[in-house]
Amino acid sequence: MAPKLKPAIPPLATTLPLLALVPSFILTTVSLSRSDWSHRTIYDPTKSDLVELDNIETRSPFWSCPLAASIVTNTLSDNTTVEETVFTPSCVHTLSPQGLCPNNAPRAPVFCQELSLAAELLYAGNALIAAAVVGGIVVVVMGWVGWGGVLVRLLAGLGGLGVLSGVAFAVLALTVSQYPNGDWASTGLAGDGDPRELNKRGPWLLGRDVGVAGAGAVLAGVGAWIGGVVWDGVRDIPIRKKGTVVEGEKGE
Q1: What are phi and psi of 158, to 5 degrees?
Q2: Contact (Cβ atoms closer than 8 angstroms) between residue 163 and residue 217
Q3: d(CA 60, CA 62)
Q4: CA 29 to CA 46: how far, in whole Å?
């Protein structure tokens, strides 16, 4: 009796998991290299009213971009000169998960723990997704859709989970624990005043790069799921009943 085979999958379809894993790695890497994980509006300290500056301050697990003041001299049409204070981002970058923590006093201990954990999870998740991409290429080229496919799916799933966990801790650190966001919890209470007028700064808000990292994590999970569908279907493993013999295995 002829063995039953699983439905055949076109060879080109084995590359489908990579269509999710490669963009996942690109998105997570890009998000780690940018600073807009959180941002806040800065108001001109030279004016009594709340006048927003053109630039904003940004912060991420690996970037800190406060605004620095500088004096610019402008020459008018009548050849007179005037001095103007301008505020431009002055960014500091680090590859260390704890490299920028001392800049966040006086609540640095809690902030540092959360932000360093977020950075470590993001690093680990990004590395696992990179390994899944390399493994996926090997699986497609060599045809190792068995245990090789299982390993790639595991790497992709763990990588996506790591990035997603890192994003969660980064959000907690950058929008809750980051000083002085706690001031806004008491806004409107008698005698407290408006924190914007007192500090000339707005609250820390989520930036767009958080969404970029989250999208990368989701794509890693999608890639792992597609790998389970495609690579399992392409194996065409014979399913034999007890007592049956597959052609070629019968003795002379």
Answers
A1: -65, -35
A2: yes
A3: 5
A4: 39
* pLDDT at residue number 73: 65
Tokens representing 207 are 């930036």
Classify residue 69 by its DSSP letter.
Answer: E
The Cα 224–Cα 230 span in angstroms is 10
Find which of 38-42, 195-199, 236-240 is predicted with most confidence, using mean pLDDT. Answer: 38-42
142's tokens: 């060599």
Beta-carbon neighbour count of residue 97 at 10 Å? Answer: 19
Alpha-carbon distance of 232 to 211, in angstroms, equals: 31
Amino acid letter at 12? Answer: L
In this structure, are residues 202 and 40 in contact, taking their beta carbons and an 8 Å threshold? yes
Q: What is the pLDDT of residue 45?
A: 66
Distances (CA, A) of 196 to 14, 30, 57, 86, 94: 55, 32, 14, 19, 29
Give pLDDT tens digits for 21-37.
999 999 999 999 988 89
E-strand stretches of the chain: 38-43, 52-59, 63-65, 67-75, 81-89, 92-93, 205-206
For 226, the token pair is 């597609």
CA–CA dist 1, 203 (Å, integer): 73
Of the pLDDT bands very low, low, confident and very high (cuts 50, 70, 90), residue 94 is confident
What is the distance between the alpha carbons of residues 227 and 216, in angstroms, rounded to a whole number?
16
